[in-house]
Amino acid sequence: MTAIVNKLTNEPIIITTISDRTTASALADAFLKNAEIATANEGRIYRVIDVRPAAETFGWSVTNWLEIARGVAGGAVRPELEAVFVGTPDMAPFFNNAQLLFFASMDQALNYARREVAGIAV
C-alpha cells in the first residue's frame, strides 16, 4: 500500500500519511515526493507525518522508516523540511524521547505549522 503525500494549497505544508500497510518502496517513494515538493518550493516546508494509521505495527515501522529514510534523498534530514509528527497518545514517549515534534491531533500539528509560517511564537 502507498503512503499518501499531499501538499496543502498555498501553504508550505506537506501531509504524509503512513499506515500499517505502507510498504518499504511506497515509503521511499513518499520521501522522494517530499523532496521533490521541497525542491520546487522556496523556503522552509513543514512535513506533517501522520503515523496514527500505523499504530498497529508502530515499533516495526519506526525501525524500517529510519532505515529507508537514511537511504533516500529528503528522507530524514533535509534542512528545508521540518518534520512534525501526528500519532496516538501511546506513541508520545517515543517521539518525546527522540526529541521530535509530536502532536496527538492533526489540528494541533497544522496549527503549530501555520503559526510557525506566520512567525507567531508557539
Characterise the protein shown here:
The protein has helices spanning 24-40, 58-71, 92-97, 106-118; strands at residues 4-7, 13-17, 45-50, 81-86, 102-103. It is α/β, with parallel strands linked by helices and 122 residues long. It has one domain: STAS domain (Transcription Regulator spoIIAA, 2-Layer Sandwich), CATH 3.30.750.24. It has a five-stranded mixed beta sheet, with helices on both faces. Helix 1 links the parallel strand 2 (13-17) and strand 3. The chain starts with a strand and ends with a helix. The mean pLDDT is 83.
CATH homology superfamily: STAS domain
Beta fraction of the residues? 15-25%
Tally the structural domains: 1
Q: Within the CATH hierarchy, at the fold level, what is the topology?
A: Transcription Regulator spoIIAA
Helix proportion of residues, in percent? 40-55%
Number of helices: 4
Give the CATH architecture. 2-Layer Sandwich
Q: Major beta sheet, specifics?
A: 5 strands, mixed
Please trace the helix and strand order, writing H or E for each element. Answer: EEHEHEHEH
> Can you identify the CATH class?
Alpha Beta
Radius of gyration: 13 Å
